[in-house]
Amino acid sequence: MPTRIFGIRHHGPGSAQSLHQALHRWQPQQILIEGPPEAEPVTHLAANRDLQPPVALLIYSREQPQTSVYYPFTVFSPEWQALQYGLKAGIPIHWLDLPQCYHFALEQQQRQPHLPTPTNPIQELAQAAGVVHGDRWWDQLIEQRQPSEEQFTAILEAMTALRETATITDGDRLREAAMQQRLQQIQRDFPRDRLAVVCGAWHSPALAVMPSEADVRTQLESLLESLSGSLSKPFPQPLPEVQATWIPWSYRQLAAGSGYKAGMTAPGWYHYLWETRHQPPQQRALGWLTQVAGHLRELGHLASTAEVIDAVRLANTLAALRDRPQPGLEDLQDAAQAVMLPDSASLTSQLRDRLEISDRLGQVPHNTPTTPLQQDLRQQAQQLHLEISSDLTVLDLDLRRPRDNQRSQLFHRLGLLGISWASRQGNPGLGTFRELWHLQWQPSLDVQLIQRCIWGSSLETAANAYSQSEAEAIDHLPPLAALLDRLFRANLPQAISGIRDRLETVASQTQDLSQLAAALPPLVGILRYRNLQQTDATVIQPICDRLILRCCLNLRAACRHLNPTAARQLAEAILTAHGAIAQLPDCPHPSRWLNSLETILNAPDSASLLAGLSCRLLLDAQYLSRDRVSQHLGWVLSQPDNLDDTGHWLEGFLQGSGLLLVHDDRLLGLIDQWVRSLPEDRFLAVLPLLHRSFAPFSPAERRQIGMKVISDVPGLHIKEEPPQQPSSATLDPHRSRKVLPILRQILAKKGRP
């Protein structure tokens, strides 16, 4: 038989073991593997020992790198074992599938055909066998059994029968026609060679019995013409140029929960099945439960050897009751849960994440083809002594040091591109010369780097172009100011110039005081800490001055006739603007801003909460004396008919801290006298407002205010009451004398008894 079809399940350890055995026995002269033909230029790299699975074959468009697709491989993938056999044997390896350039052409046309739901062959076969869960049925039947070449014949017969009634999509027909054409071409060129075809089990019947070459050619042309006719325009000529490379991958990305269509529920368990393929079932179950015990001990829970033995016995019993030849993952889970694990859902989830999913990460050799953007990142990481690793690394940077400053700029440039290798911890606002970063590389970041290649060949040029493109889509002032702050941190003068103009345009069209105020903190931070960056920050000064001026001009109108909810929202904006203006170095605006606050305080139509807040801010800035504040407070409290306005005025005045009342006895006395003078019905009405005003204070502040208030004269310190003398009825002289020897020893001088 010159051609043999091996129908496998992607990432199946049992299929991989049976295929490995069949190839060594049959010794084919050529191997055909289901996969994109564009992968042939990088196939030889799989023989490198530094290429350690899990890895992924990444195919991307040269002109539009954001158009990409990946084909993952694990050590237990049948395709990987076939690839390793062919490379070690030195025989030709061919990739058997529709060229990826056709798929990319369809994606560029943004075609979304209404296709019928594809058949899940494993689920269909499981339901025919009376089993609900298809994956578990397949694992017990194929993946956990001893290797056998007969399983490929059985799989071919089952899939042939299933395809007679199942729905085959146009996409599957197109791919299978391309596979048939490629296989017939190799059979024609090498009629005497033994060919081993490794493909998904679903496609195996289409390659086992094929129509004539003319019919295959006609069918392929018809399908391509049908797809092209449904597009807005025909396939581009020439088709998109495609590149291929290997990238590291992880078991987490292979899990079904990650969204991978061919994903598995437990890649860590599959890896264990492959590693223990030569062990008997009893030894395999014992080894898995021993790993469970080891992880439990690492997490601080007791797990004895006796519990492991009992769990193995229970797993074997469960497998027998469920009519299974050996314990599977479900049996081992139930046995461990019943014998070893405490009643903790979080612990169970943590163990399954560690063992069944696993953190295993692959690696690729240094001579793997990479994009210019990837090369630039590796070069900069090497120059700055940064290791690109999946392990979590913590860096505490001092921006006054040149190397740490360059590291920070690199991390911020990656962040602008959406590459989350480094995440900043703590407060992201400018304010110190220290930055704390967490570094952890994920395999998906390679894909993101390749997708960002359209913006430039280096991180600097790509971050410049990408940021300017993002800024064009932003219509609000605060996000633009935050983006400008990030650009200064990343030291990107070219993008700063363009986004500064965009910021001025949006600012000129913004009338909302909240947006104007929210844009000030990042701009003020740039001006205040500009010495930490290497970019000239003086270009921001005119914009910041104009924003502050507009805040001053719009403040009076924005505070008129507001309900309490709107007033509280505007109060946050006023506090934001006030804090930013106070931090601005060498600025003539504070007096103008304080004048605007005084206007709010004196205007009769200003919201009471905002008037009280303005009075407090003016007092903190020493713009108003305590006498004038006392006069304002006395005037507000002297209006018995406006209790709601009085309560809101106090809420704004006391916002933030109670230290003012702790240290200013006069103000506390005014408030106390006002509260004492209220009739009972009015006191009950204003009590919720007072409670809301005093609730944000710290417990220590409330306690000190209370100690002053309970005094007869507010502002006077409460005299400490003398300690009560115990009555003679409660004093037992006989028991008191028993402590005298101990007191003598404690109080005795050195050298005396």
Low-confidence stretches: 110-115, 231-235, 713-724, 749-753
Assign a percent range to the helix content: 55-70%
Biggest sheet architecture = 4 strands, parallel
- Distance from N terminus to C terminus (CA atoms, Å) equals 108 Å
Radius of gyration, Cα only, in angstroms? 37 Å
Strand content: 5-15%
Order of strands, widest sheet: 1-6-2-5
Number of strands: 10
How many helices? The count is 35
- Which whole number gives the mean pLDDT? 82
The best one-word shape is extended
Structural class: alpha/beta
Notes on the protein architecture:
It is a single chain. With 753 residues, the chain is α/β, with parallel strands linked by helices. It contains 35 helices and 10 strands. The protein has a 4-stranded parallel β-sheet, with helices on both faces.
Nutshell version of this structure?
With 753 residues, the chain is α/β, with parallel strands linked by helices.
Task: Please name the defining characteristics of this protein.
single chain; 753 residues; alpha/beta; 3-stranded antiparallel beta sheet; disordered C terminus
Topology:
Layout: E1 3-8, H1 13-26, E2 30-34, E3 55-61, E4 68-73, H2 78-89, E5 93-96, H3 100-108, H4 121-128, H5 134-143, H6 150-163, H7 170-189, E6 195-200, H8 204-208, H9 213-229, E7 242-248, H10 251-254, H11 267-275, H12 281-298, H13 305-321, H14 329-339, H15 345-357, H16 372-383, E8 393-398, H17 402-416, E9 422-425, E10 434-439, H18 444-451, H19 459-472, H20 477-490, H21 493-508, H22 513-518, H23 520-528, H24 541-558, H25 564-583, H26 589-602, H27 608-620, H28 626-637, H29 643-653, H30 659-663, H31 665-677, H32 680-694, H33 699-709, H34 733-737, H35 740-747
Parallel strand pairs: 1-6, 2-5, 2-6
Antiparallel strand pairs: 3-4, 3-7, 8-10, 9-10
Helix pairs in contact: 1-2, 4-5, 7-9, 11-15, 12-13, 13-14, 17-19, 17-20, 19-21, 20-21, 20-23, 23-24, 23-25, 24-26, 25-27, 26-27, 27-29, 28-31, 29-32
